Amino acid sequence: MFKEKINRLFLCRRTLWDMSVAQWRSRYAGSYLDIWWTIIPPLVLAASINFVFQLVFKIDMPGYTIFALSGILPWFFLVNSLEQATNSFIVSAPILRQGIFPREFIPLAFVLANLINFVISLALFLPLIIFLNSKIGLLPFLLPLVVILHSVFVFGLALLLASVNVFIRDVAHFLTTVFMIWFWVTPVFYPLEMVVFPFRWVCLLNPMTHYIILYQKLLFYGTRPSLREIGLVFLISGFSLFLGYLYFARKQSILSKNI
Q1: What's the pLDDT band for 259 if we cut at 50, 70, 90?
Q2: Can you give the pTM of this predicted structure?
Protein backbone atom coordinates (compact mmCIF):
# COMPACT_ATOMS: atom_id res chain seq x y z
CA MET A 1 0.00 0.00 0.00
CA PHE A 2 2.76 2.42 1.00
CA LYS A 3 4.84 1.48 -2.05
CA GLU A 4 1.87 2.06 -4.36
CA LYS A 5 1.32 5.48 -2.77
CA ILE A 6 4.95 6.48 -3.34
CA ASN A 7 4.80 5.25 -6.94
CA ARG A 8 1.68 7.32 -7.63
CA LEU A 9 3.25 10.42 -6.12
CA PHE A 10 6.33 9.91 -8.29
CA LEU A 11 4.32 9.32 -11.46
CA CYS A 12 2.29 12.50 -10.88
CA ARG A 13 5.31 14.70 -10.08
CA ARG A 14 4.92 16.64 -13.35
CA THR A 15 1.33 17.49 -12.44
CA LEU A 16 2.48 18.79 -9.06
CA TRP A 17 5.11 21.00 -10.68
CA ASP A 18 2.61 22.40 -13.20
CA MET A 19 0.14 23.14 -10.38
CA SER A 20 2.81 24.91 -8.35
CA VAL A 21 4.03 27.02 -11.25
CA ALA A 22 0.44 27.93 -12.16
CA GLN A 23 -0.18 29.06 -8.57
CA TRP A 24 3.02 31.09 -8.61
CA ARG A 25 2.29 32.75 -11.96
CA SER A 26 -1.31 33.59 -11.06
CA ARG A 27 -0.09 35.63 -8.10
CA TYR A 28 1.66 38.14 -10.35
CA ALA A 29 -0.74 38.13 -13.28
CA GLY A 30 -1.29 41.74 -14.39
CA SER A 31 1.30 43.09 -11.96
CA TYR A 32 3.78 45.70 -13.20
CA LEU A 33 6.44 44.80 -10.64
CA ASP A 34 6.04 41.05 -11.20
CA ILE A 35 8.52 38.96 -9.13
CA TRP A 36 9.87 42.06 -7.41
CA TRP A 37 6.92 41.65 -5.06
CA THR A 38 8.81 38.68 -3.61
CA ILE A 39 11.29 41.04 -1.96
CA ILE A 40 9.33 44.27 -1.46
CA PRO A 41 7.29 43.13 1.61
CA PRO A 42 10.24 41.59 3.51
CA LEU A 43 12.43 44.57 2.62
CA VAL A 44 9.82 47.04 3.89
CA LEU A 45 9.38 45.05 7.11
CA ALA A 46 13.16 44.85 7.60
CA ALA A 47 13.48 48.60 7.10
CA SER A 48 10.66 49.25 9.58
CA ILE A 49 12.19 46.96 12.19
CA ASN A 50 15.59 48.53 11.58
CA PHE A 51 14.11 52.00 12.18
CA VAL A 52 12.34 51.02 15.39
CA PHE A 53 15.10 48.99 17.04
CA GLN A 54 18.22 50.81 15.85
CA LEU A 55 17.10 54.43 15.61
CA VAL A 56 14.40 54.51 18.30
CA PHE A 57 15.53 51.91 20.84
CA LYS A 58 19.22 52.32 19.94
CA ILE A 59 20.08 48.62 19.68
CA ASP A 60 23.76 48.43 18.83
CA MET A 61 24.18 45.60 16.32
CA PRO A 62 26.28 46.20 13.20
CA GLY A 63 24.56 44.85 10.10
CA TYR A 64 21.21 44.67 11.85
CA THR A 65 19.29 44.86 8.54
CA ILE A 66 20.98 41.65 7.34
CA PHE A 67 20.19 40.03 10.68
CA ALA A 68 16.52 40.98 10.32
CA LEU A 69 16.33 39.81 6.69
CA SER A 70 17.84 36.41 7.54
CA GLY A 71 14.82 35.80 9.75
CA ILE A 72 12.12 37.69 7.86
CA LEU A 73 12.55 35.84 4.55
CA PRO A 74 11.95 32.35 6.01
CA TRP A 75 9.16 33.77 8.19
CA PHE A 76 7.32 35.10 5.12
CA PHE A 77 7.69 31.68 3.49
CA LEU A 78 6.02 30.02 6.49
CA VAL A 79 3.19 32.54 6.87
CA ASN A 80 2.30 32.85 3.18
CA SER A 81 2.37 29.08 2.69
CA LEU A 82 0.12 28.31 5.65
CA GLU A 83 -2.33 31.14 4.94
CA GLN A 84 -2.87 29.97 1.37
CA ALA A 85 -2.66 26.21 1.96
CA THR A 86 -5.13 26.18 4.86
CA ASN A 87 -8.01 27.09 2.53
CA SER A 88 -6.68 25.06 -0.39
CA PHE A 89 -9.05 22.10 -0.06
CA ILE A 90 -12.01 24.49 0.19
CA VAL A 91 -11.13 26.62 -2.84
CA SER A 92 -10.16 23.55 -4.87
CA ALA A 93 -13.26 21.50 -4.01
CA PRO A 94 -14.14 20.55 -7.65
CA ILE A 95 -10.61 19.23 -8.25
CA LEU A 96 -10.58 17.47 -4.89
CA ARG A 97 -13.76 15.55 -5.72
CA GLN A 98 -12.41 14.34 -9.06
CA GLY A 99 -9.46 12.51 -7.50
CA ILE A 100 -7.39 12.80 -10.68
CA PHE A 101 -4.13 13.13 -8.75
CA PRO A 102 -3.07 12.64 -5.10
CA ARG A 103 -5.14 15.01 -2.95
CA GLU A 104 -2.15 16.10 -0.90
CA PHE A 105 -0.86 17.82 -4.05
CA ILE A 106 -3.40 20.60 -3.49
CA PRO A 107 -1.82 22.13 -0.32
CA LEU A 108 1.64 21.05 -1.46
CA ALA A 109 1.26 23.10 -4.66
CA PHE A 110 0.67 26.24 -2.56
CA VAL A 111 3.72 25.47 -0.44
CA LEU A 112 5.90 24.90 -3.50
CA ALA A 113 4.64 28.12 -5.12
CA ASN A 114 5.76 30.02 -2.03
CA LEU A 115 9.01 28.05 -1.98
CA ILE A 116 9.71 29.38 -5.48
CA ASN A 117 9.18 32.89 -4.10
CA PHE A 118 11.44 32.15 -1.15
CA VAL A 119 14.26 30.80 -3.33
CA ILE A 120 14.00 33.81 -5.67
CA SER A 121 14.17 36.24 -2.74
CA LEU A 122 17.20 34.41 -1.34
CA ALA A 123 18.87 34.47 -4.76
CA LEU A 124 18.26 38.23 -5.06
CA PHE A 125 19.42 39.07 -1.54
CA LEU A 126 22.30 36.61 -1.22
CA PRO A 127 24.86 38.51 -3.37
CA LEU A 128 24.17 41.66 -1.34
CA ILE A 129 24.44 39.74 1.95
CA ILE A 130 27.76 38.16 0.90
CA PHE A 131 29.07 41.56 -0.24
CA LEU A 132 28.13 43.31 3.01
CA ASN A 133 29.02 40.42 5.30
CA SER A 134 32.23 38.81 4.11
CA LYS A 135 32.62 36.72 7.28
CA ILE A 136 29.93 34.27 6.14
CA GLY A 137 32.32 32.88 3.51
CA LEU A 138 31.06 29.71 1.83
CA LEU A 139 28.48 28.94 4.53
CA PRO A 140 25.47 29.98 2.36
CA PHE A 141 26.12 26.84 0.31
CA LEU A 142 24.66 24.92 3.25
CA LEU A 143 21.38 26.78 2.70
CA PRO A 144 19.75 24.09 0.47
CA LEU A 145 19.77 21.61 3.36
CA VAL A 146 18.13 24.10 5.72
CA VAL A 147 15.60 25.17 3.08
CA ILE A 148 14.62 21.54 2.40
CA LEU A 149 14.13 20.78 6.11
CA HIS A 150 12.20 24.03 6.55
CA SER A 151 9.98 23.18 3.54
CA VAL A 152 9.17 19.73 4.95
CA PHE A 153 8.18 21.35 8.25
CA VAL A 154 5.93 23.85 6.44
CA PHE A 155 4.31 21.18 4.28
CA GLY A 156 3.52 19.01 7.30
CA LEU A 157 1.76 21.93 8.98
CA ALA A 158 0.03 22.94 5.73
CA LEU A 159 -1.36 19.45 5.19
CA LEU A 160 -2.58 19.26 8.79
CA LEU A 161 -4.21 22.70 8.77
CA ALA A 162 -5.78 22.22 5.33
CA SER A 163 -7.33 18.93 6.48
CA VAL A 164 -8.58 20.28 9.81
CA ASN A 165 -9.99 23.38 8.11
CA VAL A 166 -12.36 21.22 6.05
CA PHE A 167 -14.12 20.19 9.25
CA ILE A 168 -13.50 23.31 11.38
CA ARG A 169 -13.68 26.38 9.14
CA ASP A 170 -12.56 28.69 11.97
CA VAL A 171 -8.99 27.45 11.58
CA ALA A 172 -8.25 29.78 8.65
CA HIS A 173 -9.58 32.80 10.57
CA PHE A 174 -7.80 31.78 13.78
CA LEU A 175 -4.45 31.66 11.98
CA THR A 176 -4.25 35.46 11.73
CA THR A 177 -4.19 35.76 15.51
CA VAL A 178 -1.80 32.85 15.87
CA PHE A 179 0.69 34.44 13.47
CA MET A 180 0.67 37.71 15.41
CA ILE A 181 1.60 35.91 18.63
CA TRP A 182 3.94 33.46 16.90
CA PHE A 183 5.93 36.27 15.29
CA TRP A 184 6.76 37.92 18.60
CA VAL A 185 7.96 34.70 20.25
CA THR A 186 10.17 33.86 17.27
CA PRO A 187 13.65 35.50 17.29
CA VAL A 188 13.20 37.08 13.87
CA PHE A 189 14.18 40.63 14.81
CA TYR A 190 16.05 40.01 18.08
CA PRO A 191 18.84 37.59 19.04
CA LEU A 192 17.72 34.68 21.18
CA GLU A 193 20.44 35.61 23.66
CA MET A 194 18.55 38.83 24.49
CA VAL A 195 15.72 36.79 26.03
CA VAL A 196 16.39 35.92 29.65
CA PHE A 197 15.37 32.68 31.34
CA PRO A 198 12.74 31.46 32.06
CA PHE A 199 11.13 33.42 29.18
CA ARG A 200 13.67 32.01 26.73
CA TRP A 201 11.99 28.63 27.11
CA VAL A 202 8.96 30.06 25.32
CA CYS A 203 11.17 30.73 22.30
CA LEU A 204 12.98 27.39 22.57
CA LEU A 205 9.69 25.47 22.62
CA ASN A 206 8.72 27.29 19.43
CA PRO A 207 9.81 25.01 16.54
CA MET A 208 10.26 27.93 14.14
CA THR A 209 12.96 29.35 16.43
CA HIS A 210 15.36 26.56 15.50
CA TYR A 211 14.99 27.15 11.75
CA ILE A 212 15.47 30.90 12.15
CA ILE A 213 18.63 30.31 14.20
CA LEU A 214 20.09 28.20 11.39
CA TYR A 215 19.38 30.90 8.80
CA GLN A 216 20.90 33.55 11.08
CA LYS A 217 24.02 31.46 11.62
CA LEU A 218 24.53 30.94 7.89
CA LEU A 219 23.64 34.44 6.67
CA PHE A 220 24.62 36.74 9.53
CA TYR A 221 26.92 35.23 12.15
CA GLY A 222 29.01 33.23 9.70
CA THR A 223 29.14 30.14 11.94
CA ARG A 224 28.52 26.55 10.98
CA PRO A 225 25.46 24.93 12.57
CA SER A 226 26.25 22.01 14.84
CA LEU A 227 25.12 18.46 14.13
CA ARG A 228 22.84 18.72 17.16
CA GLU A 229 21.09 21.76 15.67
CA ILE A 230 20.72 20.09 12.28
CA GLY A 231 19.51 16.90 13.95
CA LEU A 232 16.92 18.82 15.97
CA VAL A 233 15.32 20.50 12.95
CA PHE A 234 15.43 17.16 11.12
CA LEU A 235 13.35 15.64 13.93
CA ILE A 236 10.96 18.62 13.98
CA SER A 237 10.47 18.41 10.21
CA GLY A 238 9.92 14.65 10.37
CA PHE A 239 7.39 14.99 13.19
CA SER A 240 5.52 17.77 11.36
CA LEU A 241 5.29 15.68 8.18
CA PHE A 242 4.26 12.56 10.12
CA LEU A 243 1.55 14.40 12.07
CA GLY A 244 0.16 16.17 9.01
CA TYR A 245 0.15 13.06 6.86
CA LEU A 246 -1.33 10.88 9.60
CA TYR A 247 -4.33 13.17 10.07
CA PHE A 248 -4.75 13.61 6.31
CA ALA A 249 -4.60 9.84 5.69
CA ARG A 250 -7.30 9.21 8.26
CA LYS A 251 -9.62 11.89 6.90
CA GLN A 252 -8.94 11.93 3.15
CA SER A 253 -11.77 9.51 2.33
CA ILE A 254 -14.36 11.96 3.73
CA LEU A 255 -12.69 15.27 2.80
CA SER A 256 -14.74 15.84 -0.37
CA LYS A 257 -17.99 14.96 1.44
CA ASN A 258 -17.51 17.86 3.88
CA ILE A 259 -16.87 20.59 1.32
Answers
A1: low
A2: 0.88
